[in-house]
Design goal:
3 helices, 2 domains, alpha+beta
Length: about 120
């Protein structure tokens, strides 16, 4: 599964097909994301090839899609990734705290600006 090794920084979940340059391979390590992506492709009648491989991170779900469909497939890919994305700060009170701190900084900046006029 060396072909799917994203390296140190995993920036994308797609690569050019290793043997057919007319295709791009999208890969998912999460079954739910892969299923959502596959369903989206089927709903839009986009031709794709599907496969699964075992990697050092577990099972990888692979989708080979023609590069001519790349623009719409990229959008579907981002939708699949975004649908299951967890927030950076998952705690409600953590988010409220960050908003409160930002609000205080803005208020402080406005007060400072007004005093220096």
């Amino acid at each position: 599964m060396d072909d799917m090794d994203e390296g140190f920084l995993k920036l994308t979940n797609h690569k050019d097909h290793p043997t057919n340059k007319a295709y791009k391979v999208f890969f998912f390590y999460d079954k739910e994301k892969a299923h959502y992506f596959e369903t989206s492709l089927k709903e839009r009648n986009i031709h794709f090839e599907r496969g699964e491989e075992e990697s050092n991170r577990g099972l990888v779900y692979l989708f080979g899609v023609r590069k001519t469909d790349n623009q719409i497939v990229q959008k579907l890919n981002y939708e699949a990734l975004g649908k299951f994305r967890s927030p950076i700060i998952s705690s409600y009170w953590g988010r409220v705290s960050i908003y409160a701190i930002c609000l205080l900084i803005i208020i402080f900046a406005i007060i400072s600006y007004m005093q220096n006029q």
